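Dissemination and training. As part of the outreach component of the grant, students in the summer workshop were shown how a complex can be specified as a set of sequence lines and then modelled as a single object. The example used during the hands-on session is reproduced here so that future cohorts can follow it. Participants entered these lines:
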Amino acid sequence: MKNTFGNALQVTIFGESHGDQIGVILDGIPAGITLDMEFIKQQMEKRKAKGRISTQRHEADEVKIVSGYFEGKTTGAPIGIMIANTAQHSADYEKTKNRIRPSHADYSADVKYRGFQDYRGGGHFSGRITAPLTAAGAIAMQILKEKGITIASHILTCKTVHDTPFTQEEAALKKEMKRMNEEDIAVLNEQAKRDMLEVIEQAANDGDSVGGILESVILGVPAGIGEPFFDSMESELSHLLFSVPAVKGVEFGSGFAFAEMSGSQANDSFYFDNGVKTRTNHNGGINGGITNGMPIRIKTVIKPTPSIYKPQETIDRQTHEPVILQIQGRHDPAIIHRARVVVDSVLALGVLDEWMMNESWNVRKG
Amino acid sequence: MKNTFGNALQVTIFGESHGDQIGVILDGIPAGITLDMEFIKQQMEKRKAKGRISTQRHEADEVKIVSGYFEGKTTGAPIGIMIANTAQHSADYEKTKNRIRPSHADYSADVKYRGFQDYRGGGHFSGRITAPLTAAGAIAMQILKEKGITIASHILTCKTVHDTPFTQEEAALKKEMKRMNEEDIAVLNEQAKRDMLEVIEQAANDGDSVGGILESVILGVPAGIGEPFFDSMESELSHLLFSVPAVKGVEFGSGFAFAEMSGSQANDSFYFDNGVKTRTNHNGGINGGITNGMPIRIKTVIKPTPSIYKPQETIDRQTHEPVILQIQGRHDPAIIHRARVVVDSVLALGVLDEWMMNESWNVRKG
Amino acid sequence: MKNTFGNALQVTIFGESHGDQIGVILDGIPAGITLDMEFIKQQMEKRKAKGRISTQRHEADEVKIVSGYFEGKTTGAPIGIMIANTAQHSADYEKTKNRIRPSHADYSADVKYRGFQDYRGGGHFSGRITAPLTAAGAIAMQILKEKGITIASHILTCKTVHDTPFTQEEAALKKEMKRMNEEDIAVLNEQAKRDMLEVIEQAANDGDSVGGILESVILGVPAGIGEPFFDSMESELSHLLFSVPAVKGVEFGSGFAFAEMSGSQANDSFYFDNGVKTRTNHNGGINGGITNGMPIRIKTVIKPTPSIYKPQETIDRQTHEPVILQIQGRHDPAIIHRARVVVDSVLALGVLDEWMMNESWNVRKG
Amino acid sequence: MKNTFGNALQVTIFGESHGDQIGVILDGIPAGITLDMEFIKQQMEKRKAKGRISTQRHEADEVKIVSGYFEGKTTGAPIGIMIANTAQHSADYEKTKNRIRPSHADYSADVKYRGFQDYRGGGHFSGRITAPLTAAGAIAMQILKEKGITIASHILTCKTVHDTPFTQEEAALKKEMKRMNEEDIAVLNEQAKRDMLEVIEQAANDGDSVGGILESVILGVPAGIGEPFFDSMESELSHLLFSVPAVKGVEFGSGFAFAEMSGSQANDSFYFDNGVKTRTNHNGGINGGITNGMPIRIKTVIKPTPSIYKPQETIDRQTHEPVILQIQGRHDPAIIHRARVVVDSVLALGVLDEWMMNESWNVRKG
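and obtained this result:
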């Protein structure tokens, strides 16, 4: 469905980096909810470019709700969220528009769209489109929060710097998650945070960029949400995560580390202690595509920002002659600290959609 | 869509491990194709349990096409594929049916389905349902092959044994892929293969199990297939991969290894040599969700088979009392060699669906 | 989605008139339901060919459930329903296979499927595929019945014979509906029934056929089910109704008779009497796409069966030369008495799907 | 999918009658098309309120494209179309907001949305949302026109006044269609037009309203477009038509008139004359859900506008006490002349979507 996703909750995104307006239509949100506009604003702020470690393009990212919201409450009709682009410098892209930028969608889009795509700032492929996703995600998070579900991520690794992983113990985990959600740069260990900032600044100074791995936790999802096979919780969440630009890998629970385990190590033993629980959580809270009540644990890798200032070898879009690309404009030496907010947002949308679909089974109770 | 997936090509699966019949409805396959029944059979054979490294449940897996096929050719109507279950030993599950099997869907399904799920052999959550997926994938592969697209996987790692990765050079890669597709146990390096078999047999002897990582390549997909955001090639393929039981992580191109790279290392430089190419292929053939003409490279982790013979601590489904589970029946000490075929199959279905959707743009040429 | 329909409840059909097997995969039915196999059988019986007014092809239409049903209860997994074809006379179609049958899908399918469609008995376009739809509908009806929802249709007109319309008064209406659901030939007025049978037999004697109009009522749907715009109750139900072969018109409430009314006549005044009600029901129980608690009233026209024995002018499929078509085989002079059951079935599937989607809003109560 | 519709072409609508902004996201339009902005404007003009026979709410309906359009051409990214509401008089609705308006969605929406819907001007249920549909339809029409497909409707009946039906002869039909597309009030016969205007003005003077029947033709669709069963051309088009407010009946070809025909009258004989044709066109260009190359013929009934100035009996939304409703504000005594444009628009969207899906089959040619 291209730019629309979801079963009970539909998200439709549109817009380009240098267009007038970007936005999202969020359909399926129940009526009667007073949106926490302050929270939406905070999420938008967290996603914003910051200091020397981010692009100098500073967008206001003011969220305007044009439909589905009346007298301070959702109406049940589709919520139209608009965000104006205000800080485009389109001229930066004129000069290099025929030089295919490595690791960007320039070439693949050029083939698909026969040369008609908007090249400025990556057009529709821009990370800017994650701004409306963040606003939509904030609304989903608010509903999940009412149900006791919280989501948080931190930067687990950035180049060779490693943060402490989220703890397993629930009370401590909750505190860590809360803290991460209050931070601009979500890193658990303070020294790791300083080291990461240094790594990013160094990359900025070098005209280069870095990526990293995000560790996310979704806490409070009860057992029984998700589907076997095609709408497994993993399928839905990975579908959404891989739609975030720069994501190139997703794992649940122990993920790729399962490869070296034996079954007797990997199997999570069940026990009962004020609820059904597992002693370990290698499966990351999901068995057979369906939640088991344990925390959902996800790791997502964000590749280094493709836009770097270092000269790069590439070819001309039309002549295919070799050319040197010297990127102009304002770019992020790292986006992982910003992508964190987007990852949390799509996770919220995915979990809420699966939850809402699961409600359909209650047809028999009513 | 629960048990149905796809946009232009729809796959609907059904069945349980110990039911009479499992199957798939494959809708959207063009009319007029003489199905390569021999190839379908070969794929089914490759997926079958083998020797000491697999379960002793030996299913005939005879594929019966009951619709959409007439006078030896597809008709354009939905293709109904039925596979009889013939070798169930349901009694094996009677005794332990109330003991929640760790890492299986037993508990999460029990909550979702309120205790009514078919517990025998995992019911609908069984890997048996990948048999019809394999048959459907074989049909997709045949169409892709006509377009010059081939898919192959090998076991990159199994516990601590590592195979040689697929080579980058295309002519050699093609040979490797061809060879892997002819093997029962797809490992490039002969010594690695022997070592892996040993590891698996050792696990079998220990009443334990192992998993591993599959490396897959899709060769021959031209540039321009896929969509930005929600129907990105990565989103669609990961959605399908995570619907395969035991898959817990998926990465494209350099995947999680991107985390330690700088942009200048990670960016794939474009050049022209009888077509647009990139010197490296860290992005695994996909930029911005759309193919760039380079080989699509994917790694998928398969967790160790949850069914192990070693006694395991768990709880009773109803009383929640602690119990020791001693699994009966016939189980695979490893499924990675069989999962390989399923992974190739869903990749074929995903690529064909994206390709077919992309054809819709040709509305303007017609 | 071609042969799959539904949002919370998915129906996937497959099969051909002369294939081995036809069937349906019904996904989304909650777990724990003891299916009323006797009722399914009754519905299949009602849809069957009968006496001189129907085809002499007598199919057993034995429903076999191959998945999603365990120990006498639904499991929550997709329900696979198989029906064997047992009474094909394929030879009847050999001789005339190149003569395009008027009002059938022969020509349009020939273009779409490039000549590869199964021509025998209309192949996938056959009314036989409504047998699995009937089985699926019977399951939906059972769930609706638990919620106090009943569905019934009668033959309102057949050629120039008109039956009495369903009454408006609810207690009497219920009785009429119950009676219609017990009849093989659903006509309210006994004289009208005799006249209709005579009209059909006359058509049979003439080698001709007839159609007619079905009037349907869905009783007991509470207010608030449905969606504005694209998933309006009318949109969903008409979508399903027009997928039934031979349906060429659908209206809700006063339908086409609205054209001659003024607003003051057409508007249904609200009043309260042990619930919110309307004095008239011109809108057929639906306002703005959403149910208002009044009976849902629908009329559906069934065109005369295209297969008639009278010689017909047509052309050769390949040469396009004019030819006379003399249809062989066994055909229905009327299908309206059988279509009635199919119409009820798809209405049940549509209402249940909308109901189940509506449950997703309860995410906020949970 | 609530407010999103389509398979290859997705239409997502949003907005309310008295909100700031209404709009549509149109996704799937191929890249490289210079949009005919003048034509879009003409279509918006035709849909506008006119003279004494329409509401006095005069909206500018200025179409603003905010995405998917660059340097005067479509880019392939979703086209965001925004229309500002400029002429709301919300105060008109304050006084009567608790009086359930008969034949409106007030009550059904109140139940579904638990009282939180935007009541002003019908909120999201307003005919205003058909303005963005009209803009989206105009883009679809432009693409269809390039393929030789045209769509036109006229008012066949309005109360007791009947227009001449569209002629069957193709050259004359084309002229009639062209003429209807140039008219503000689409009536073929001049006297009928004058009579209809008189009927509407009389209704306006009486504080009442009228409806009528639209006859539509889609010309130039080649044979082979559509699907059997659930995505039949009739299913898709009726789905869209019934999503247009006030539509309560849809028929194809002879529609309800089939009821009185015998098969020998109803069957359309095939002949060849510079292409495969049928002598009659009772089936309205569709056999088995798939086009047969003949003109697609549709009739759609539009119920009388529910908003009338005459006092009406109804109940209070909260107390359920009987009250007299005296509607304030500006309302249309008829909308059929405006609905005509919306009907053409959704038909264009439906045909283009089916066409684009059909292209997926060309996977085998490429």
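DSSP finds nine helices and 18 strands in chain C. Students were then asked to discuss how this feature might be tested experimentally.
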